[in-house]
Amino acid sequence: MFEYNSNIGSETLNKEFKVFNFYNIGLELSNEEAIDLILNKKWIFNNNILYNIKSMIKIYLPKYTCAYLSNKLNYNSELYFGIDDFGYIKGIPYQGDLDINYIKESLHEIINTYNSTDDNINILDYIHIDLIKINYKTLENLQETHKYYKEYKLKYNEYLQEKEKYIKKRFIWNKLAIRYNQKLVDLVNNNDTRYELINYIEYHSPDSHIIKLLKTDFLLDNTLVDNIIYYKNNKNNILYWLTEWKDKMLNLVKSIRPYFRFKIPAHLYPINILLAIDPMIHYWCKFNQNINLYLIKFIFKSHEKINIKYKNIYNEWTSCIRLLNSNGPCCQHV
């Protein structure tokens, strides 16, 4: 008997698990719609389940069919939809009875399109499908509102507060950046920045005659600036001090640029709570009638080695085999 959230062990050379969720096809829901579905616990996803089953068959079956049937199998191999990588049974929720014929039709369509063999065999003769209903027990003391959503609300309020602080800091920083990113002429001829430039020169070269010049009614004009390449390396020229000071101030401004680094953990977003499926299982089963949980088991029958290929995501025909490496069982291209 398969029990929800029980563990059936690790993946092996002849056994592979795929957790079932909506990430393959997504859900066309706004944030407000996702929140409403979390709060009212309503199940509206039967069609999404069917679309995602077909999507997963398209993604995984051609590859694993090639991998398993390209090796000589002395005993059957298995691919499960509805079990996570650690061997925990999560299942596929569906309101009512999931039709195995839909799965078979999808399998036949995908295999006939994305697998081929030079051998005179019917690949589908070597693949069998079992639809397994999972035994589910209602969770006692289920919280009225999902704990992820409660945490999301707290984090979202914190996010708004931090964002308001950031906007204020960014406003001040923008003004500072604009202040020192003016034209050279304006930096000298505006009193505020001129005063800063004088202080800078007094600190680095108290005896410079440029200080006296800046304390007069001197105004910089574009004629001198146009020849900056000839003057900016000459300490006796105002352009030397002006460009050095401007560069240092701009570097300082860049170094204190505020960044908004606050992030809400991805799994707390309402849409991701729904996309993951498993966080909502207890709520869907309790607040909706006739919700069943299933495993889909694909069995690859024992056989002699078959020369088989599959069409990958790049629409290229390729081959792979099933083997063990240091990270565990995998499918390796050959």
Which descriptors would you attach to this protein?
alpha+beta; 12 helices
Query: Largest sheet, described in full?
Result: 5 strands, mixed
* Proportion in β-strands: 15-25%
Class based on secondary structure composition and strand pairing: alpha+beta
N-to-C series of helices and strands? EHHEEHEEHHHHHHHHHEEEEE
Arithmetic mean pLDDT: 93
- Ends distance: 38 Å
CA-based gyration radius: 33 Å
**Number of continuous helical runs:** 12
Overall structural domain count? 2
The strand count comes to: 10
- Shape call: elongated
* Share in helix: 40-55%
| Sequence stretches where pLDDT stays below 50 over 5 or more residues | none
Provide the fold topology.
Elements: E1 15-18, H1 31-40, H2 46-69, E2 77-81, E3 92-95, H3 100-114, E4 115-117, E5 127-133, H4 147-180, H5 184-189, H6 191-204, H7 209-214, H8 222-225, H9 228-231, H10 238-255, H11 270-276, H12 281-287, E6 291-300, E7 308-311, E8 317-318, E9 320-325, E10 328-333
Parallel strand pairs: 1-2
Antiparallel strand pairs: 2-6, 3-6, 4-7, 5-6, 7-8, 9-10
Write a brief caption for the model.
α1 (31-40) crosses α11 (270-276) and α4 packs antiparallel against α10.
Characterise this structure.
By secondary structure, the protein is α+β, with helices and mostly antiparallel strands. The protein folds into 2 domains: 15-145 and 271-333, no CATH class; 151-255, no CATH class. The chain contains 12 helices and 10 strands. The strands form 3 sheets. Strands 1, 2, 3, 5 and 6 form a 5-stranded mixed β-sheet that branches. Strands 4-7-8 form a 3-stranded antiparallel β-sheet. Helix 1 (31-40) packs across helix 11, helix 2 packs across helix 3 (100-114) and helix 4 (147-180) packs antiparallel against helix 10. It is elongated and about 95 Å long. The chain starts with 14 loop residues before the first strand and ends with a strand. The mean pLDDT is 93.
